[in-house]
């Protein structure tokens, strides 16, 4: 019998992220405490750019954006928010969306699978994702359970379960 496999990936649904940004933009335009402070949220290439007149206001805009991402089902592990920095008369924060699993995190996941997972399970790094294989589907489900319980700095999705 052929091995059963699944892939471990870390991806953010671009449409859900776009919807979260649009919802945050609408809320910021409506809220009274953001009137007259130049608060805005917009896409800047692949990053989200937050602007406001003071450091506290831009951090408040960040809170609104993060809450919208959570409501859309995107974890904060998928966001890489920078520190506020001054740009002319306004403060800005850039947020990058984390796509893919970097080599360091992939090695850490592989180590967890080797140490805590069943001995029949094998994992291999393929670019920015991991392929996990085993003869037993139950062993693969055990690996998924272990990885969900592990406290990792990346958001994991399990796809292509065969």
UniProtKB/TrEMBL annotation:
GO molecular function terms listed in the Swiss-Prot or TrEMBL record: nucleotide binding
Assigned keywords, A-Z: Nucleotide-binding
One GO cellular component term: cytosol
InterPro entries: UPF0234-like_C, UPF0234_N, YajQ-like_sf, YajQ/Smlt4090-like
Domain of life: Bacteria
Key word Nucleotide-binding present: yes
Pfam families, alphabetized: YajQ
Family in the record: Belongs to the YajQ family.
Stated role: Nucleotide-binding protein.
Protein name: Nucleotide-binding protein GCM10010196_23340
Provenance organism: Agromyces mediolanus (Corynebacterium mediolanum)
């Amino acid at each position: 019998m052929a091995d059963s496999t699944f892939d471990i990936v870390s991806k953010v649904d671009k449409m859900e992220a776009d919807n979260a940004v649009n919802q945050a933009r609408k809320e910021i335009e409506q809220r009274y405490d953001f009137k007259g402070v130049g608060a805005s949220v917009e896409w800047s290439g692949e990053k989200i750019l937050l602007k406001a007149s003071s450091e506290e206001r831009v951090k408040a805009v960040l809170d609104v954006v993060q809450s919208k991402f959570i409501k859309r089902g995107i974890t904060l592990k998928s966001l890489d928010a920078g520190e506020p920095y001054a740009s002319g008369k306004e403060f800005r924060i850039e947020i990058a969306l984390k796509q893919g699993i970097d080599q360091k995190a992939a090695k850490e996941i592989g180590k967890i699978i080797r140490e805590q997972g069943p001995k029949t399970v094998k994992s291999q790094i393929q670019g920015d994702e991991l392929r996990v294989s085993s003869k037993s589907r139950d062993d693969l489900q055990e690996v998924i359970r272990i990885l969900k319980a592990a406290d990792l700095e990346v958001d994991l999705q399990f796809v292509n379960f065969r």
